[in-house]
Structure formats: structure tokens, C-alpha cells
Amino acid sequence: MMEYDVIIVGAGPAGASAALVSASLNLKTLVVEKKKIPRQKACSGILVPASLTFLRNYFGDLPDEIFSRPKEVRSMRMHFGGGRVVDATIGGLMVWRDRLDEWLCRHAGAEILDGTTLETLVEKDDGVELLCRDPDGEKLSMRCRVLIAADGGPSTVVRLLEPVLHKRLRWYVALQDIYECSCNLEPGLFHFFARPEISPYLSAYVKDDRLVMDVVVSVGQRATDVMDRFRAFLWPRVGVEKASLAGRLGCRVTYAAPKGLFCFGTHRVLVAGEASGLLNNFGEGISSALASGLIAGRAAERGLREGVPPGRIYREEIEGEKRKTLNTFDYRRFLFGKSSAIHFGARSVPLSWRERIGLAGDVVRWLLRMRKSR
Fold this sequence. Notes:
This protein has 374 residues and is an alpha/beta fold. The protein is built from eleven helices and 15 strands. Helix 1 links the parallel strand 1 (2-9) and strand 2. The radius of gyration is 21 Å and the shape is globular.
């Protein structure tokens, strides 16, 4: 039996953040990751200002090799069906997720078992027992005093822990295509297309002179067919030429927040990041993943030190991140407030009231269509 103070399932930003904290507080820490590191992920790779501040404060200076070109992503440019185009300030940087996550894991200071899959878990009064399989299919029995689940939206831990809640979640497939091509899509912007007749989520942007396109569809729809429709819509508008598919990634996602289907765990199992439901209205989850991983790591150490259930501490401390996520689904805050990582309130050229009213109409119509799809 392999024994640890803290075992973390998942080696993304939430898992790396939790590992950094628990290892630095002298807890024997293990990270279990089902894929081999570095592993790719269908993600824009945008680090919003909150993420950048967190990473610099806790992980140090970010190395140049994790960033794409261009490095800066100034704004999200929203393209509405009626022809209205509006920029929302981001002021962030863009990375490739395989490079970022590998760097985070390397700096976390915890032991890592990659290519290792969690199969079952049993929570007891004084700890959690896990059964995993290594890359060769061999069984690994583990025990920890605290388990932190940071294994993404389709979380194995949440499925085992809360099967009823897990079944209530509505699932989507995110598909990302990367093209070698020439086009006139403006770099340094994240282009979001509010065209729910194609897909509830459509985006395109340039990374390392490649065109990246993202679509999200309900499970049961053919994501490749939706990508074909998005391509037919976008390419004539941005002058794509000499295109060849350089990469294709996919994953399952869910939006738990609108229905309040968060899962933050039990007494000794703490659920962080996207696994808990902390994914905002535009699919940006890195900032909450980092923050919730930090909160989980600290709650684990404090609970063990004080002899109280870490889960109770964690559920109290995570309320702020939960509220931030919920606020992104409030169109009034989205348009006029500063509660989201992406908002219109920080524009260098403020919208006139007439523009705000027109934009509000566009956003409301888009959100209503989105709500129906969820």
C-alpha cells in the first residue's frame, strides 16, 4: 500500500496549484495523472490577468517557451449575427496548454505518477483508499489522509463520489481544429462568434501563425459536422487559403453553474477546478482552477494540522470562487460590471448608452438561445 498525506488526481492547473501548496507545507504529496505528461488539451490557453498574477506570485516568472506567438491577447472580439462587433478587454497572454501544464507540474515539487488511471476509491473516517492502474495495467493500492480531485469536467472522482449529480449534468463535446494556412484574421484577439444556429460556442484565433477554431456541441451531435459549418461560415470572411489540418483535439465539458450543480466534495475528498463546476460562461477555467487548487491545498494542511475535516474548511473558503463563476452567467454583470475575467467595463473607449442598449439586446438574444441549449 502506497501511503501519502495528500493525493491529487489530475495534473492540470488546479492539480499543480494544490500540489505546490501541499508539498511546500511539508505534506507528502502525490499527483496521479491518467495521461502521459506533457499532454495536450483542447483549450484556448488564455491566461487572464488573475491567472498571470497568481502564477507570478506562486510559481515565479513564466518561461518564454510556454507562450504562443503573438504572446498578448488584448481583447475578445464578439461578432453578433446582426453584424455588430464589440471588443471586451482581456489583457492576457496566450500559452500552449501542454507546455504550461508540464511546467506547472515540474515546479510543484510533488511526486508524479503519469499514465496512471484511478479506478475506485473508498472514503473512511481517517483517510481515502484508492485503486489505480499504472501504464502496464498493474494494480496500485494507495492510501491518503486527504484526496484532492482536479481531474477536469468528466471527473472520475465526482462520478464515483456523486453518481446522481453526475448523471444530472448535461454534457457537451468541445472540438478544436488547428490549421496551417494563410488568413487575414487579426492576431492578438480572441474572436468569439455569437451564432447559436451553428453552435452555442464558436471561436477562432491565431497562434504561431496557425488558425485555431473551436466549436462546442451537445453529446449526440457530430462535432465534425458542426466544425464543417463553422468553417464554411468563417473561411470566406477571413480569406483562408492553402489550408491543411495540422491537429485536432477534443474533450467533454459541462456547465454546472447555471443549474447550481457544483460538487466540492466530502470531509476528506476536496474537488477543485473544472471538476467542481468552476467553469465560466466563456469556458475560461484556468483562473478558478489555480485559485481553487490553492484553497484545497491550504484546507488539506489546515484540516490535518487542526484535526478537523478538511472538506468543511474547503467548502467555506471556496464560496468566493463559486460566486465569481455564477456572476459570469448574469448578463447585467457581464455587460456593465467587473466580476468576470472578460468584461466590457474596462474598455479604453467606453460604449455610449445607445451602443450599450444595442449590445444588451444582442447579448440577451444570444444568452436566451444559449439557455435553451443548456
